[in-house]
Amino acid sequence: MDWLSDWLKNVIMVVLFAAFVDLILPGKALERYARLVLSLIILLTLLSPIIRLLTDPPEQRLAQELERQEKGLPQEMQLESILAQAEKLKDVQQSQSLEWAGSELARVMKEEIAAETGEAVQEVEVVLAATRAEDDSYTGADIRSVDVKLSGPSDAAVSEEGSGAKEPIGITPVESIEVNLESGTTDNNGSQAPSQGREAASKEYKAREEQIVKYISQRWDLSPDLITIHLPEHGQDDKKL
Amino acid sequence: MEIIQVVGLGLIATVLILVVKDQKPLFAFLLAVATSVMIFLFLIGKIGDVIRMLEDLAENSGVQMIYLKTVLKIIGIAYIAEMGAQIVRDAGQESIASKIELAGKVLILVLAVPIIGIIIETVLKLLPA
C-alpha cells in the first residue's frame, strides 16, 4: 500500500501546483496553453503507476527530453543513431577491403595460371564475400567465384617453365569454388580449331579448361564449381563442367 | 507595505509619462519600460520566496522535481512573454506584441511535447495489438 499513498500524495501535490500556477498566470492570452500543459502533467501523474508497469518511469524520460530541448541538441545526437552510422561506415569499409583483396587475389592467380599452365590469361576476376558468425561479427572471407578469361590458344611449350618458382601465398579461409566453362568472345586468333575439326577443337579446349580448373582448385583449395573459365573460341557453345 | 511602494512608483511614472508624452514620445516609452522592469525586479525577491517554498514542499512530499520544473517554466515563460507583449503594445506596435505572445504559446506547447509522447506511448501499449 506504500505505492498508493505515494501516488495519492503525488497527485494532490501536482493538482495544488497546477491550481497555484493557474492563479498567478498573467493575462488571458497564454491561459489556455498553460492550462493544456498543466492538465497533461496531471494526467501523467494519474497514469504514472500504469506507465511504470508498462515502461520505464516517466520522470526520467521527461527529464532527458527536457534537457535535450534546453541544450538544443538535434535528434541525431542520440546514441542509437550514432551507433547506426558507425555500423554503416564499418560495412562500407569492409566491402572496400574485400574488393581490394579480391583484385589482389585475381592478380596473383593470373600470374600463377600463366606460369603453371602456359595459358595466356586475359583476366581473372575473384569475388569475395565476408563470412559472418552467428552474432554477426566478422570472421573472415570466402571466395564466392573465380572467373578466368583466356585470351588465346594454349601454348603448351611454355607451360612447364615457371612451375617451380611459385611461392605459396597465405590466404584465409577459402571454402567453395565453382568452375563454369564458357566460350568467350574476346579474342579470335585461336585459329587452330577449324583446321583440326570441331571435335578435336572442343576436346582440346575441354582439356585446357580442365587443366586450369584442376590447378586452381588444388592450388587454392577451392571447389571446382566456383571456377568459371571463358575461352576465346568462336562458334562453340558454352560448356559447363 | 511594499504594495504602497509599487503603487507610488507606478503613479509617479504615470504622471511623468503624461507630462513627457507630448514633447518626447520616445522618452515616455523608455520611462514606461524602466518602470515595469523596476517593479518586476522588485517582485523577483518575493517570487523567489514562493518558489523556494514550493520546492521544499515538493521535496518533502516526494513529488518528482521534473514536474515542478515544468510548472515553473510555464510560469516564467508566461510572465516574460506577457510583460514584453504589454510593453510593446503600449508603444503602439500591436503586431509585434502578438508575435511575442505567439512565441510564448509555442514555447509553452513545446514543453508539452515529451509529456504527450509518454502518454500516447502508454495508451498504445495498453491497447491490444
Automatic annotation (TrEMBL), chain A:
Domain of life: Bacteria
InterPro entries in the record: Spore_III_AF
UniProt feature coiled coil, ranges: none
Ranges where the record places region Disordered: 182-205
Bilayer-spanning residue ranges: 7-27, 33-54
Pfam family, one: Spore_III_AF
Compositional bias of kind Polar residues: 182-195
Alphabetical UniProt keywords: Membrane, Transmembrane, Transmembrane helix
Protein name: Stage III sporulation protein AF
Originating organism: Paenibacillus lactis
Automatic annotation (TrEMBL), chain B:
Alphabetized UniProt keyword annotations: Membrane, Transmembrane, Transmembrane helix
Transmembrane segments: 6-21, 26-45, 65-85, 106-127
Pfam families linked: SpoIIIAC
Domain of life of the source: Bacteria
Name listed for the protein in its UniProt record: Stage III sporulation protein AD
